[in-house]
Write a structure and sequence with these properties.
The chain has 7 helices and 3 strands. The chain has 184 residues and is mainly alpha-helical.
């Protein structure tokens, strides 16, 4: 479904937002809004599009995230709940609930860990693999259409720039010590 762009060529809603803030608060440097408001708006559009792609396969976004983490792990498509926590950025209690719900739907199974029988591993079932693979195909087709306006070099440059902004969040630097005695 293509939406008509009602703004003049090369302008978007963020241009209007930034212009309004510059008019109302000329004392502030609103330049960060040029980038981050666009990222925020794009994220909202992507969330909606992803939700539609996943719902066509009877999946919620969180279900796709867990199933995709297992699928990406490679055969036998099995991870510990702790590893799933790291990949999906949720709490332990949330992950337990998610695994329970996916297991009830037959999309994952719990198995004793081969290294420690007191712990479990979560494994993707054939049904889960089929479901996540089909949802991924739909998702990629839609996301490809979103990026269709960009040349391959532009898409690569955008990915690189976004990586530079995102990396500090994914890999925060060690805290700097303010202990002066260590420097002397």
């Amino acid at each position: 479904m293509t939406q008509k762009n009602s703004t003049p060529a090369g302008r978007d809603e963020v241009d209007d937002l930034v212009a309004a803030w510059r008019r109302e608060r000329p004392d502030l440097d609103v330049a960060p809004l040029e980038v981050l408001s666009r990222v925020t708006r794009l994220a909202r559009h992507l969330d909606r599009a992803r939700g539609q792609a996943f719902s066509r396969h009877s999946l919620e976004g969180w279900e796709f995230d867990v199933l995709a983490a297992l699928r990406r792990s490679g055969a036998p498509y099995r991870l510990s709940p702790g590893r799933l926590l790291q990949q999906t950025l949720v709490t332990s209690g949330t992950m337990t609930n998610r695994i329970d719900r996916l297991a009830a739907r037959g999309l994952v199974e719990r198995h004793p860990s081969p290294d420690d029988r007191r712990s479990v591993m979560v494994q993707l079932t054939d049904a889960g693999a089929s479901r996540v693979d089909a949802a991924l195909i739909d998702l990629l087709a839609h996301e490809r259409s979103i990026l269709a306006e960009l040349t391959d070099p532009d898409a690569d440059a955008l990915a690189s720039l976004l990586r530079r902004v995102l990396t500090p969040f994914d890999h925060p630097a060690a805290p700097v010590s303010h202990d002066q005695s260590a420097a002397t």
